[in-house]
Amino acid sequence: MELIAPQGHFAVIDDPAALDINPLKRKSASVHLAFMFTGSMSGIADIAEPGTLLNDLSRVVDEGASRTLAEYFRPINATNLKRACPDRKRQGQRQDRVGGF
């Protein structure tokens, strides 16, 4: 949790046995939960959006404009994530573009 910047974002796509969010609360961090079947189970309006994002990402990868961190930095851990993103102005900064980390 120490890697999350104040007002940063933390996403959970798995089902952790326990998750203490108190450290995130003290940083006013956002916690985002994702469940693969939310759209189909609840009939959300933007159900096609994940497919659109995945198509955009696959195009960027096919064009060679994006690669996975695992291709460069193994294992994936905090130290290697910092090495992979040296141009970030502050930890936890959001990048709003396909292929951005």
UniProtKB/TrEMBL annotation:
Gene3D superfamilies: Medium-chain alcohol dehydrogenases, catalytic domain, NAD(P)-binding Rossmann-like Domain. It comes from the Bacteria. This is Uncharacterized protein. It comes from Paracoccus mangrovi. The lineage of its organism: Bacteria, Pseudomonadati, Pseudomonadota, Alphaproteobacteria, Rhodobacterales.
